[in-house]
Write a structure and sequence with these properties.
Helix content is 52%, strand content 16%. The two termini are 35 Å apart. The chain has two domains: 144 residues, no CATH class; 172 residues, no CATH class. The chain has a five-stranded mixed β-barrel with strand order 3-4-5-7-6. It has a three-stranded antiparallel beta sheet with strand order 8-10-9. Strands 1-2 form a two-stranded antiparallel ribbon.
């Protein structure tokens, strides 16, 4: 839910709009860029140019996607999107470019639109065919990265900075005899960074884990077994927007419940909550689809051992199917 021109409510925190790290226009008018998460995109002007479409007709399709996808052209494009694993309610994400709003269309959307108008439409468009072949040959990410001059290695260094600064701020804040979610899932966050997931003020995995664990704690009446949770002061680095409300109360749990947490984290969160979290981050443009699926595969798969007969979570199955095709 949007609260103003610059923030979107996510969970219990107000998270700012995704910013464009680089935004450029090619000599032939293709507008493109890279989000601060490392996700490449085309603007509405860019995808219209590459597909050879009239902007007014595309604007109508995009703005009314929830109804347009039910029939005709929209249905055909939606089928291509579903085949790629994209199931968001919008074709675009609203991003900030130098203080102004821009509609960003990420890889699965751009390729589905180009594929439809290149090969499936009643009146096929030559420009879309040429664009689709160029992107298929070079790869969407490589195409945008090379033109914009983006280098992802620097963003990974930023992720390490974000992580280490948060570790320092949590250190010695949790009372003796208790544990906190952030420190317990540090290994997972490290794995995500190593697999090129940009961890910053907009991707905060411990919020997801903390919400699900708190719900499990209450539902299972674990207070009766281990005693009360207690509050401690949690602070974000001063360059995080969330730091404006520091210190923030968070919950610490009795150490006696640590084995229960770890069992729940490995057998429940990683296998049935984490896949949905990563795919939702991908669909919102915060993580590239390929990176999200690889992260799911590498983080969750080790805990599937000895669970061959367990039905797979649909989001985990989607990630595994995606990886088996590439």
């Amino acid at each position: 839910m949007k609260t103003d021109n610059n923030t979107v409510v996510s969970g219990q925190l107000d998270l700012p709009l995704m910013h464009s790290e680089i935004h450029k226009t090619s000599p032939d008018g293709v507008e493109m860029g890279v989000l601060e998460s490392g996700v490449p995109y085309l603007s509405q002007r860019g995808i219209v140019k590459m597909a050879g479409l009239a902007r007014t007709s595309f604007q109508n399709l995009s703005a009314n996607w929830k109804t347009e996808r039910e029939s005709g052209v929209g249905l055909a494009i939606n089928n291509l999107l579903k085949a790629s694993g994209y199931e968001e309610d919008e074709l675009f994400i609203v991003i900030d470019v130098k203080g102004g709003k821009t509609y960003a269309y990420t890889e699965p959307v751009c390729l589905a639109i180009l594929e439809y108008y290149a090969f499936d439409a009643k009146k096929k468009i030559k420009i879309a065919q040429n664009s689709y072949r160029v992107l298929s040959k070079a790869g969407f990410r490589v195409f945008v990265y090379q033109y914009t001059g983006y280098t992802p290695q620097r963003k990974q260094l930023d992720s390490w900075r974000h992580f280490h600064d948060r570790v320092e701020l949590v250190d010695n804040k949790v009372p003796s005899g208790y544990f906190c979610v952030f420190r317990e899932i540090a290994g997972m966050i490290v794995s995500l960074i190593r697999r090129d997931v940009i961890v910053n003020d907009k991707i905060i995995p411990d919020i997801s884990v903390g919400i699900h664990w708190a719900n499990y704690w209450k539902k299972s009446n674990l207070t009766d077994q281990f005693g009360d949770r207690i509050s401690y002061e949690h602070n974000y680095p001063d360059y995080y927007p969330q730091a404006n409300s520091n210190p923030q109360p968070d919950k610490a749990y009795p150490n006696e419940a640590l084995a229960i947490f770890r069992k729940w984290f490995e057998e429940t969160y990683l296998l049935s909550k984490f896949p949905k979290y990563m795919i939702s981050q991908s669909e919102r443009g915060k993580v590239e689809a390929g990176i999200a699926n690889e992260a799911i595969k590498s983080v969750a798969l080790p805990f599937l051992k000895d669970k061959i007969e367990t039905p797979l979570d649909p989001y985990l199955k989607k990630a595994l199917n995606h990886n088996s095709k590439h």
